[in-house]
């Protein structure tokens, strides 16, 4: 097949447009390729990412177990820990998990451990990520009152919190709550786990005929962000619940995208029905100071805030070419957006708990970088 000069010029243009700029952004990074992982018997396409470690020195993911004998023994999932040093993959630790179904997992933000929910919210595992020691710390017992945990699971300053619902001895529902998961090791390998009520969700997300909740984001056991659509007012309110008090942060005709922590929140809002102008802001939750982010009517997706709120990541998708461009804004620069990644393959991103390392996982590689 021969290509005429015009088609050749067009092809060269798209190669330059899509791929050449990739080499000039986010220089402080390294790639773990699909081939690198295959040397450790890992198929990147089968990994379900959990998160980076606190300092970004390793990456944790889940993976399904395909071996029929192992599955028959109750091991349907395994934990993969990808460890790297000096910008290269050095080791992959693998741990079979005694669960028949995966619900969720979260890394601690103060120590190297991961909490894993399995079996439809009836079993909790804890793994020490330094030693790879696995412990079953809680499991549902039939005929006893308890708590069905999940799907949401978070860690805030070393404390674990989860959504779920309490049930009585007959397994009947007793209310939806956000709880703190209190873990106490009484003897070696023996644990007392208590689900401490923090927020009764039915009292926060009160859906009425004229108003309803569309989205929410849990920060800790006493704090969350959510929106409430007021039909008669034709406005959506962005609300902050903290210590049993509710404060309206902003409102507009459309307000569905938001993410935050105990210090800052990023959100996107259309204030008026006409003209419809999409704007983006970071707000300090204590002082209510606002920073305008980026350009009007730009669609920023998959926002991330560092745990301290001093760094913001936003993505712009190019759905036609299946690539994304990532921008970073820093508080010290008034959250001015600077390009971090340009036209990279679409994939899940994460930020380490210290706020200094990011990861991007694609079907071809895992990218680890500093920003």
Characterization of this structure:
By secondary structure, the protein is mainly beta. The chain is built from four helices and 28 strands. The strands form seven sheets. Strands 1-28-27-26 form a four-stranded antiparallel sheet. A hairpin with a 2-residue loop joins strand 10 and strand 11. The longest helix is centred in the first third of the chain and has 14 residues, at 5-18. The two termini are 44 Å apart. The model is unreliable at 10-26 (pLDDT under 50).
Overall outline: globular
Oligomer state equals single chain
Number of helices: 4
**SS-based class:** mainly beta
Mean pLDDT: 90
Number of E-state strands: 28
**What is the helical fraction, as a range of percent?**
under 10%
- End-to-end distance: 44 Å
Q: Mind summarizing the main beta sheet?
A: 4 strands, antiparallel
The largest beta-sheet arranges its strands as 1-28-27-26
Please state the CA-atom Rg, rounded to the nearest Å.
Answer: 23 Å
Low-confidence stretches: 10-26
Strand percentage, roughly? over 45%
In short:
The longest helix has 14 residues, at 5-18.
Topology (elements, then pairings):
Blueprint: H1 5-18, E1 29-33, H2 34-38, E2 48-52, E3 58-64, H3 68-72, E4 77-85, E5 88-97, E6 102-107, E7 113-118, E8 123-128, E9 133-139, E10 146-156, E11 159-167, E12 173-187, E13 190-200, H4 201-204, E14 211-218, E15 223-230, E16 235-242, E17 245-252, E18 254-260, E19 264-270, E20 278-284, E21 290-292, E22 301-305, E23 311-318, E24 323-330, E25 337-345, E26 349-351, E27 357-361, E28 365-370
Antiparallel strand pairs: 1-28, 2-3, 3-4, 4-5, 6-7, 7-8, 8-9, 10-11, 11-12, 12-13, 14-15, 15-16, 16-17, 18-19, 19-20, 20-21, 22-23, 23-24, 24-25, 26-27, 27-28
């Amino acid at each position: 097949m021969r290509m005429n000069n015009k088609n050749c010029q067009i092809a060269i243009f798209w190669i330059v447009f899509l791929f050449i700029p990739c080499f000039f952004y986010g220089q402080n990074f390294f790639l773990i390729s699909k081939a690198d992982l295959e040397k450790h018997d890992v198929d990147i396409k089968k990994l379900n990412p959990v998160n980076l470690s606190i300092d970004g020195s390793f990456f944790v993911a889940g993976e399904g177990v395909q071996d029929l004998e192992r599955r028959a023994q109750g091991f349907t999932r395994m934990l993969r820990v990808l460890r790297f040093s000096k910008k290269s993959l050095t080791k992959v630790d693998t741990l079979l998990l005694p669960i028949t179904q995966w619900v969720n997992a979260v890394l601690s933000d103060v120590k190297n451990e991961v909490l894993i929910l399995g079996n439809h919210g009836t079993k909790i595992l804890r793994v020490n990520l330094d030693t790879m020691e696995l412990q079953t710390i809680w499991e549902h017992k039939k005929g006893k009152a308890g708590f069905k945990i999940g799907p949401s699971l978070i860690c805030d300053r070393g404390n674990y919190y989860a959504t779920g619902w309490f049930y009585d001895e007959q397994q009947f529902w007793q209310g939806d709550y956000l709880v703190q998961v209190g873990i106490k090791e009484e003897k070696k390998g023996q644990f007392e786990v208590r689900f401490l009520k923090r927020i009764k969700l039915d009292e926060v997300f009160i859906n009425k005929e004229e108003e309803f909740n569309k989205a929410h984001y849990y920060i800790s056991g006493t704090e969350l962000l959510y929106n409430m659509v007021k039909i008669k007012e034709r406005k959506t309110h962005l609300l902050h619940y903290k210590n049993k008090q509710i404060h309206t942060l902003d409102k507009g005709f459309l307000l569905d995208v938001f993410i935050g922590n105990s210090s800052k929140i990023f959100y996107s809002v259309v204030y008026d029905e006409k003209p419809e102008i999409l704007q983006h802001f970071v707000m300090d939750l204590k002082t209510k100071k606002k920073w305008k982010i980026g350009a009007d009517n730009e669609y920023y997706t998959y926002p991330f805030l560092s745990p301290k709120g001093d760094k913001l990541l936003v993505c712009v998708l190019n759905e036609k070419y299946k690539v994304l461009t990532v921008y970073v804004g820093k508080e010290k620069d008034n959250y001015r957006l600077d390009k971090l990644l340009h036209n990279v393959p679409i994939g899940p991103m994460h930020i380490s708990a210290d706020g200094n390392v990011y990861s991007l996982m694609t079907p071809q590689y895992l990218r680890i970088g500093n920003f």
